[in-house]
What we know:
Residues 6-283 form the UvrD-like helicase ATP-binding domain. By secondary structure, the chain is α/β, with parallel strands linked by helices.
Amino acid sequence: MSSLLSALNPEQREAVALPHQSALVLAGAGSGKTRVLTTRIAHLIQSGQASPHGILAVTFTNKAAKEMLSRISAMLPINTRGMWTGTFHGLCNRMLRAHHQDAGLPQTFQILDSADQLAVIKRILKSLGADDEKFPARQVQWFINNAKEEGLRASQVETYDDFVRKMVEFYLVYEQQCNKEGVVDFAELLLRNYELLHRNEIVREHYRSRFRHILVDEFQDTSRLQYKWLRLLAGEQTAVFAVGDDDQSIYAFRGANTGNMKEFERDFRISKIIKLEQNYRSHGNILDAANTLIRNNSGRLGKNLWTAEGHGEPIRVYNAPTDFDEAAFVVDEVKSLRAEGVALSQMALLYRSNAQSRVLEHALFNASLPYRVYGGMRFFERQEIKHALAYLRLIANPDDDNALLRVVNFPARGIGMRSLEQVQDDARRQGGSIWEAMLQKCGRVPASTSETEGNAQARLDGSMAPDKIKKGVEGFVVLIESMRRVCENLPLPEVVDHMLEHSGLLGHYRAEREGADRLENLNELVNAATSFVHEAEDDSLTVFLNHASLEAGEHQAGGGEDALQLMTVHSAKGLEFHSVFLSGLEEGLFPHDNSRNEAGGLEEERRLMYVALTRARRRLYLSFTQSRMLHGQTRYNIPSRFLQEIPDNLLKWLQPVQKARFGSQQPEFRSSGLSGARTQIQESGTQDSAATRWRVGQNVVHAKFGPGVIVNCEGRGADARVEVKFGRAGTKWLLLEYAKLIPA
Ligand SMILES: Nc1ncnc2c1ncn2[C@@H]1O[C@H](COP(=O)(O)OP(=O)(O)OP(=O)(O)O)[C@@H](O)[C@H]1O
Ligand SMILES: [Mg+2]
């Protein structure tokens, strides 16, 4: 037996050494699917059944493709360059480049990202004089991408009413425009390639006879069009080797379709699905937890996993009073794991939503622990946060040119390149800021004396500034001035709040189809400001902005440095770590609130949870918080139902919870396990605040929020807090230790 095969179990070996035929490996997490796929490629080459040139392998990320190539190179001393490996989009792009003429594209065709695509659509709608209330650009974008994903060109979409007819008309003009400019969007990469193969027999036959082996990892997450593309590319002589796990299908919301598995079985005449049941990744307790959890889903294709390893350590559960305590707990554990010799890169910190990373990043930053956000951006580097910070910087100082240029036309407010160039020219000439030049442009202040006389005269009578430029600029100036005026007397969190609403950022992302994540991040910025007010001596806007740029700037670990891995559960797919921290296991967060509105949403969340649990090899931490800051307010949470679906005997509770910590509405957790968390709700409503000098109904004054009245009290000692209804600032929960209330 070759050394490649000897490192595998009999089922894996069978899959790797399968004769030339299509096959489906359906197996749970950590059972070696990716390893089998990679080894099969090496085996095919080593045994002379295929050359690298004859192999196409589809992976889920470019990074996975690179890793696959380096593993193959480690197994065999060969050049893998002729092999095609990559994502569906990457491979389609490669093929279109090679056949750009047949595909009707210029050699140098450019790829439009989602924002570029939207800009093209907006231009088109404007030129057609479309009613932008009836036909918002984003909806048109969605319509076009959806049609493409279904494989339909404008001429093929069925028009059953006037609205759709209009949409199709826009789609048609968009198609023409893209063709004219020689650009393709993401959906187009796939569709164009599909059409090329469909239409052009020579190209199709060329690739069919070239790729006698197509291998697909993470098959459960292929979309309809991707599947159709695969079918077209695979000829009679092509063996398609697909590996996947229906329990890990987590992209249904983006059009992935597990139905593809059933069709694959039929279309490729799969007589026997290969199952792998031995898990090589995780210790027994972790595996048992995952197996038990996923049994709650219906309609599974059904499989089980076992491990030859022992039970290992129990799963550690931490019930944190607040999200800050949760982050502090993670930091402590990471430090002690590191002291035990576990590399930081072997530890992952997972969360359901991107916005959750902020509090965790903050704690890691303060502890000087190097970390890297995998497959995403660190909080303060995210586009929407940078936009929001730019507005805040303008509120603090409108002469900040960089901030101004970043948001002057975001969200779009009709200030074109030409207008901008003109005010920039003015600014340069006068040696002042762009803001000053804008003020002059719309006649807010007299033109500066350094201007030429002619210009100054023109500015005074306004004749040089075309009306359009003036109008756009004026709108922006009025906005910033009004924000500055209103925010002057507001506490920091409300400055952020006001800015988000009035800048138009919230409205912009609300209208975006995939804007939910960005909205969560923006709301998280209000939380950042609220905690900053509690923590910092000087809580002015300027100091907050300094703090944000500090956290944004320097502490992301460099390329080679050993660093803790932070990522969403979605980006953790396919990866494994010695230790995994899964935070925020609370109802509404995980399962996410959004899942309630979608059919099958909860089951998809459970599959995500299954993915999360099965990333851990040796140690798994699950944590949840009793309260978490949400939009600047403390929210009380109940633990995720997924925690309850894991048998108690696999869990070790790290911290007994103090009783009577919360008021009557709050769940009380028993230290012995989850059954307590499931059922016990403290009945008494005991509040020890009577011992303090605060009572419900009392009038108080807060240094920033002004006068208010206490409507609720709870907690004791350092945790004592009150809910105060302020005349101006609304209702807020405040920690007494920090709030420094004065009786009125
Ligand atoms: N026969 C084996 N002997 C030893 N280790 C193995 C064997 N098969 C797989 N492994 C190891 O088990 C781990 C999980 O394998 P792999 O990542 O291929 O699983 P997977 O099924 O692709 O998981 P996922 O569903 O999470 O993508 C890897 O570290 C792999 O090297
Ligand atoms: Mg895998």
